[in-house]
Amino acid sequence: MNGHKPINAGRLSVAGFSFLFAYILSFQFEGQVLYSLLEMRGINASAYILAAMIVHFMGLLTCGLLVRSGAAAKRIMLGGMGLCIVATVPFFFAPSYRWMGGLIISGYFSGCAVAAWGFFLRDFTPKNERIKSCADVLIYSNLLMIAVNVVAMNRSPFIGLSLAMLCLVIGIAFIWMLPLEQENEQNKTFKNKAHGSIKNPLILLCLFVFIITIISGLMYQVINPSFEHLTGLTSWYWAVPYIVALVIMRNLPKKAKRSRILYIGMAMLIGAFISFMLLGRNTSDYLIVDTLMLGACGIFDLFWWSILGEMVDYSDNPTQTFGIGLSANVFGVLCGDFLGMAVTSIGLLSAEVAVIALTVVCVTLVMLPPLNHQLVLLLKSHTYLAVYDNMNQSQQTDIVRQIKTLGPLTVREQEVLQLILSGKSNREIAGALFISESTVKTHARNIFSKYDVGSRAELISTLLKNHGIE
């Protein structure tokens, strides 16, 4: 009926967000525009960069409190990008308190705008295309960042700043053209039925993201300065391996297992820090270290961006889910920055820095199997529940009766099980059966024990998968 509209809206959404993200990458904390401006004025960059990252983190974390609809998300994105333009203007003039003020304003509202995009990702991109949309955003924004960085470093910081602001103007134009669509029926179903909870998998994902991105912050503070004499090369090559990794990941077969790819990323990280420890500081050494490091970063970034893209389907507020997930990334970089500053201040050798980084990698390796297990259970159980909703009463009853248990279910346990399979939370089950929530939890534990499972997600997955639903 309107088959072309979601595709066009999805492309507009990706284009608008890519230009916003290019501004953030090239100006606020990863790119060279702000660094070049501060260096030209003889100002230490640390306080400015940390301030920008802290307020950006706060914007990502709190935007969900302000945005609860697609219309509100569009207003926040347009308003946030507009404020970023205004707040960036002082950097064309002599340094003053307006620089720090502008950075704080632009950092916070750019964070809000990024989080708000969660609504557009859910509403305008089909679920099976979200990994490609996330990859496209990261690829396009990094290509734009490279262009702006090269100009800022080799021509003029002010021209680079102008280009970064132009990215915002173009981004506003694309977001402005987005339609305000009604929430689709699938999203209404997920909203009205509390299909399990994404809280625990989201917490685990955030913890994984936080720990692994500590390495990114450490990289900015320790590895990058070691190759700062290669200005011409680093201005454009720095993000190239990242983009190449994203292109490869984007075009992998859908059946490719993410967990195996993540282990490849882990091996690349280990190789990067061992190379940094053993090699020198010339051009070929930089190419080896940067290729391994940034290639791994591309793998990890697309992993959690695409997972968040799937999680927004199961959240009442996709802005909140998307913002919290990405805030873990920024917080990890922040902590890595502080760790890097500490390492630099006490003058640790490159071998000792590598040991610290490898320790972080080992922690994430331990976390990877349970993280993958939780995410698979979450996404599969929600798929099964959607199928269960479309069954008639007799089919739903047959599912419960046909699966053997370690012990017979009581009448009350059968009632609780049916409500679990309908997507009810413990509180909703308690209200429906006029019992306490603690009693519901006791019945649920007994059900888990009789089906030999450890959680609600595993119960749902086991019941419906054994019924022949893949």
What does the model show?
- With 470 residues, the protein is mainly alpha-helical.
- It is built from 20 helices and no strands.
- It has helices spanning 4-28, 33-40, 46-62, 70-88, 97-124, 130-154, 157-176, 185-192, 199-226, 231-237, 240-250, 258-278, 283-311, 318-346, 350-389, 393-402, 411-421, 426-433, 437-451, 456-466.
Second CATH tier, the architecture of the largest domain: Up-down Bundle
CATH topology title of the largest domain? Growth Hormone, Chain: A
- Determine Rg (CA atoms, Å): 24 Å
Give average pLDDT, whole number: 80
- Low-pLDDT sequence parts: 1-7, 182-196
Number of helices: 20
CATH first level of the largest domain: which class?
Mainly Alpha
Span of the ends, CA to CA: 29 Å
Number of strands: 0
**CATH homolog superfamily of the largest domain:** MFS general substrate transporter like domains
Our estimate of the beta-strand percent is under 5%
Give the % helix.
over 70%
Draw up the topology in text.
Blueprint: H1 4-28, H2 33-40, H3 46-62, H4 70-88, H5 97-124, H6 130-154, H7 157-176, H8 185-192, H9 199-226, H10 231-237, H11 240-250, H12 258-278, H13 283-311, H14 318-346, H15 350-389, H16 393-402, H17 411-421, H18 426-433, H19 437-451, H20 456-466
Compact description:
The protein is mainly α and 470 residues long.
Provide key terms for this protein.
470 residues; Growth Hormone, Chain: A; Rossmann fold; disordered N terminus
